[in-house]
Amino acid sequence: MKRTDPEHDRLPAYYSRREMLQGFANGFGMLGLAGLLADEARADARADANPLLPKPPMFPARAKRVIFLFMSGGPSHVDTFDPKPRLTAEMGKPLPFAKPSLERTKTGNLLGSPFAFKKYGQAGTEVSELFPHVGGCVDDLCVIRGMYADNINHNGACLQMNTGEQAFSRPSLGSWLLYGLGSENQNLPGFLVISPAQPAQGAPLWSSSFLPAAYQGTLVNDLSNPIANLKNPLFPAGRQRDQLDTLRQLNDLHRHKHIEQSQLNARIAAFELAYRMQTEAPEAFNTDSESVETKKLYGMDDKTTEIFGKQCLLARRMVERGVRMVQVYHTQTGTRASCQLWDQHGNLRNGLKENCASTDKPIAGLLKDLKARGLLKDTLVVWGGEFGRTPTAENSDGREHHPFGFTMWMAGGGIKPGMVYGATDEFGWHATENKVHVHDLHATILHLMGIDHTKLTYQYGGRYYRLTDVYGEIVKPILA
Amino acid sequence: MSSLWFGAGAGSLALLGLLSVSPSAGGQAAGKPAPDAADTAFFETKVRPVLIEQCAACHGEKQQAGGLRLDTAEGLAKGASSGAVVVAGDVEKSALLRAIHYDGKIKMPPTGKLTGEQIAALTEWVRRGAKWPATKILPAGTSTSGGFTAAQRKFWSFQPVKRSAVPAVKNMGWVKNPIDAFILAKLEAKGLKPAPPADKRTLIRRVTFDLTGLPPTPAEVQAFLADKSPDAYVKLVDRLLASPRYGERWGRHWLDVVRYADSADSRGLGTEGDFSEAWRYRDWIVEALNRDLPYDQFIINQIAGDLLPPEETPHGAGTKLAALDPASRGMNIPGTIATGMLALGNWGNGDADKDKILTDIADDQVDVVSRGFMGLTVACARCHDHKFDPIATKDYYGLAGIFFSSHILPKLTPKGAGENFLRIPLETKADADRRAEYTKQTAELEARIKSESTAQYAAYVRSMLPETSRYVVAAWSYAHRPEAQAARTLADFAQAEKLQEIPLRNWLDTLGLNTDYRLMTTPVRDALNTPGVYVWRGVPDCPNLTVNTTDQPHMLLTFLLPPKSVSVHPGPNDGVAVEWVSPIAGTVQVTGKAVDADPACGNGVGWAVTHRQASGTVELTSGSFLNGGKQDFKEGKTPQNLNTIAVKPGDHLQLLVLPNGEYSCDTTTVDFVITQKDGPHAWNLTTDLTEEPLRANPRADRYGNPGVWRFTDMAGSRRPTGTPNPAIAAWRAAVTPASDTATVEKAAQEFANAFKATDASSPFAPASEAEESLLPAESRAALNGLRAQLAMMRRSPPPPIAFANGVQEGGVPESPHAGFHDVQVHIRGRYDRLGDMVPRHFPTILTGEVPAPKMQGSGRLELAEWIASPSHPLTGRVFVNRVWQYHFGDGIVRTPSNFGFLGERPTHPELLDWLASEFVAPVKGDNPYACGWSMKRLHRLMMLSNSYQQSSDPAPLTLKADPDNRLFGHMNRHRLEAEAVRDNVLAVSGNLDTTMGGVATRDINSGRRTLYLMTIRSDRSGYGPLFDAADANVSVERRTVSTVAPQALFLLNNPFLLSQTHLLAQSLAKAEPESASARIQAAYQRLYGRPANSQEVEIGLAFLARAAKETPTAGSVKSIAEGDLRPWEEYCQLLLCANEFLYID
Fold this sequence. Notes:
The complex is a heterodimer.
Chain A: H1 17-24, H2 31-36, H3 38-44, E1 65-71, H4 85-89, E2 117-120, E3 125-128, H5 132-136, E4 141-148, H6 154-163, H7 173-181, E5 191-194, E6 218-220, H8 237-255, H9 262-285, H10 292-297, H11 306-320, E7 325-330, H12 348-372, E8 379-384, E9 388-389, E10 401-402, E11 406-412, E12 419-421, E13 423-424, E14 431-433, E15 436-437, H13 438-448, E16 458-460, E17 463-465
Parallel strand pairs in A: 1-7, 1-8, 4-12, 4-15, 5-6, 5-7
Antiparallel strand pairs in A: 2-3, 4-11, 8-11, 9-10, 13-14, 16-17
Helix pairs in contact in A: 8-9, 11-12
Chain B: H1 37-55, H2 73-78, H3 95-100, H4 116-127, H5 150-153, H6 178-189, H7 200-212, H8 218-226, H9 232-241, H10 244-257, H11 278-290, H12 295-304, H13 333-338, H14 340-343, H15 354-374, H16 393-404, E1 406-407, E2 424-425, H17 429-464, H18 468-479, H19 490-496, H20 501-510, E3 518-519, E4 522-524, E5 533-537, E6 544-548, E7 554-556, E8 559-561, E9 565-569, E10 576-581, E11 586-596, E12 605-613, E13 616-625, E14 630-632, E15 645-647, E16 652-659, E17 668-676, E18 682-684, H21 685-691, E19 709-713, H22 726-734, H23 741-754, H24 777-795, E20 803-804, E21 808-809, E22 823-826, E23 834-838, H25 844-847, H26 860-867, H27 875-888, H28 909-920, H29 935-943, H30 956-961, E24 974-975, H31 978-988, H32 1023-1026, H33 1045-1053, H34 1055-1071, H35 1076-1088, H36 1094-1110, H37 1117-1121, H38 1125-1137, H39 1139-1142, E25 1143-1144
Antiparallel strand pairs in B: 1-21, 2-20, 3-19, 4-5, 5-6, 6-9, 7-8, 9-17, 10-16, 10-19, 11-14, 11-15, 11-17, 12-13, 12-16, 17-18, 22-23, 24-25
């Protein structure tokens, strides 16, 4: 720990070293002690010990934490990161091959992107004019153009992108990471979900499902009041310290009557952590202390980018403090909030432009800031949505859901920068080259985090489950 | 059950080490030591499938290329004609590995290299000794139609339950009933002793929480301590088993298993895409437990209750569907509700892929039934034969066919839409006939009243037509009365002019001459005792306007005020208007919304936006919405004419909310925002009112313009109609405020000549029944006579139809699965790759050679009766184990929903079987332990044992020898579950509301038991998940117990906790007003069921003294009013946080 904890001095003298270990090596903000005594503590680990203690990866990890920027609703790949000249050239003609039988609604003829693409960076990767700032960071990105998924509706597709499964409840990516690695900061939730409006279907996307509840994501939707129950509206702070000290006296009297004590001790420690969280968590979530330049970098000085800028800045503050995974859902722009903001069945020209405008600068700001702080090298940043959109038109100014080929990108910890991986066909319909399934993406993320996706398992309902079910291949060519 | 992968050097394999079983050794190939459970599981999941799928075609039964056979242990041991292919533990020397690595000349398989994962698995297997377990498990992808191996047939949980002999023990004195003999025998075998008995105080607290989820009251504790009779404890258990709180406690345990939720979506608003009737199923469970419905009936009802005859008959004869004539069959209402278990599944509603939806629903049902009742993970066999248990894919589809032949959806919705849930009307045929007759009769009578009143009104209006010009002139005169008469009321004026007031007001409205609506002038602070909520009104009750100035939502009566919001409520006949009086000349835009704040009752409201100018009032837009609805006046969502409105100073823009027949549930939250299009100003009603709720009405705006906001009671005024009558337009054109009397009279005469309407648009026409006083007496008598008839009829309506979410016979109507039918195997779980047709049947390993019964209908009833049979090997075992787990903290089998190979083995198999056999044994005089499926008898059996009554502090030697308490040598201490934590707080603060059943509440501040707090699948942010309540998305066999800081934060800071702390302090003060130490004693008795010792009293007094010194004198209103209660609140809170309050010994 970065500072000595004054609470140590408050421990009553009759605590034996063994008791200290049992009671307080449960973590709870005392990582130094926990680290020193780690082996002993682990041997002691019981069901009621703090499940969020950091655990070493299975092999040396390239990334320690993940920021997943989730563009809720399905961003159009052919208008953002996957240029298709032939689609533009043959605009208005029918798709020259049969569409898959799984269709949501009948779409029309080919719709070229109304937006121009331009080469960026040394890599010369083509990016749409909608993302000039992200384009400026393209040498840090690995753009995966051959993504594909299985479900054609938001609910199933969001569920698959977050949990690997389309219909039933399964633990989310963040929950698996917490289960596998714990969190490096016991004073903050280890898996945060920042979303001003609820994305499609809500909690199942960050659920721990059958994993213990402690691995569930914590939703922050009110950016100004992120964590519940942090303030006591009645009693002055000084009184609470007295309450806790007195509580400890009473708990000790109770404790010494009993032989087996680990759960009782864990609870005593939890109160001390809660006490510290009351001051530390608000500080972590308070962006006021950031410099004017930093706020500008994230676009917090502009109404268009203010909200997502704050989300991204919070994400940085969280990973900086050792939070394992932050999922940033884009669900609100300066003018509208929606669970499916990127769902351009219509209003493609204006709606998509607005979405990109409200995220472009914040995302670039995040990447630059992480880099400047030396965090990008071991922070994995993932960008994408639940699927892409049809290259064919829905009415005149829209595109339908499209899981058969779409784009995501990754940057940072362990990812080869400045590359494009995989491709869709000339119209952007099917992923054709170096295809990456959602399961493969998950396998790769776990791999970068130092986890073998086939070995991170949990037994439930008669079988071992894993994030990637029985699938998933690590996408090795994109690893640095 | 759970396992962490990290740990020892074996890496991922550590998890498998948790398996408790070590299958017998034997059949070793290359390896010498016997494989342990970890090796076995690893081999079966990772190795054997590769050998069978990738190698056995050439190196198997039919062909042994190179003399090598890789599908048996013997084959591997023998090796190839060229020699051994595997050297146990030596990765380098094993030819097999070189071949699969494509390292040498021989590259296997020749068709293509194995995947990295497969290669790694075989390598790891060799490294660990290439052990080949004797337990034969059928490899994936093969069929079991050929039967099972002896090992599979002999697996413990598939064997018939035997009534084990009660073992002999040394210490016979400790044995209260046979359970104790089974427990003691195992302890004695290890030279261990059970824990001493728990003391009486501990015992009553344990038993009371165990059976009711609530603490014993101090009086109950005293009575138990005072009862020295030998059967005091028996009486205690019986009293608690008879309490209705028992069903609420134990019902919750079962709801965990069946993944119960009150709502599938976050809105929880009860739309068609939600199972909003789920609560009836929850209430059925509670009621079934309270009346001790035998467990076999409990099973049958939940799987096939809809198929039972209306009167529940004892299980057995007479329950067959065929015995009843379907046409005359009444409905089994409770049984239909009970099938909610199958209807509340979680299967990804909203998938565009309809075939997938149908297969997923059946899968959910196979899973919940097989795991819930039989501890069998049949659902694993959806895509391939079960990898661990002898359950073939065919067995899965044999069961699935039963559910494919039943439905929980009314039909499939169009592509792209979410599915709706079947809502089954809970009505017998006779009820339905009665309802139809009633509806017909009342409709006829209503039609008659309607036509009669239309005729009577028209006659009256015709009689008044000659009066038209007189009324028009009078209206104009009143509207333009001299300044000196400004205060003169319309009633007074009408009387003086010998005119009727009602039509005169209507004429004012119709001609656009109306004066301002009545202002609401009376403010009320802290309405309904809710600080920060203000109400404005004119008349005593409604209409009114409510302002929530706080950041919290407030649930008041039946409506919900959102944080920082303004809501209005119309009166019985009167609308409410919120008005903006323009301080500017220019162009503005109106946005805003109206949202029903009371979706649980009422019939919706009407609304309108109007623009009142000097020349009259026009309606800009209007409409109505149904209960729970809303209207958004957002830009782009409404007619263009809200976007650009030219206003002059003094113009009114009005948002009207009008009652829709019934008014009592019409609370409507409104936003009303006026934005200047040609200037910088904007006016926002909600912001202005929530910032300063108590300014006068009308009130100035934030720019200092006086009288901009008004909120008014429309007091019977008729709102203008959208399309002005040409005669009215001509009249308006002809007169100005300056017109002289002659001009006005002339214009009025011309108007009267042109305006001959006799329908409801005439100002003479009564607007409603309330205005019928205008009509001649005989007309009124005729109408009132008819109405009296209708009222009489309505006094005895048929009861409202209740609905249930449940299951009905036949596959989803109009889908490919409609009707009753078997299904084909879905190869690899895919509905588009179909295999053999499988007759509906039950898992073959359990039925043996006995053929499946002929399915009548779907087969659900046959399935239910088969599961509920006393000879079923799993049903009884699984259930008694669940009950044991909830009583003792751990099951005899510690994986209560998995009695298969991957599940744990029973720690006390003989005890499990003894309990299972007693549980199903018929109650007869000669067997005191037989339960006859009675759950209450089973509880009694377990709780009256000495094993149950042990202390939670083990003898030190026992603890050391058995740290996981697998021998049950002491009681397990446990933290209260989420429900019991909150219920305990409510109980000790004296605020527990024991109302049972009904729709769940969303209000954590409610006094209702936590069982009745709403659980929503898409929301995991509430109270329950914080304290490890069951996740309603999955079947929960056992709750996790986490100890994390957010729980402490809840106890320290949450407003619910603080309000309960206040109530607790208050009620203790009332009980012990004088002495502080007596009050401390009272607190200990109430919270912990014991007196405080002197040290504890001292600590308490010292704390209170410090708190009193530091209590700020100028605190909240509350602390001043209640003097020195604050220190006690602080003290009570810390007592609620103490371990002793939350842990049960």
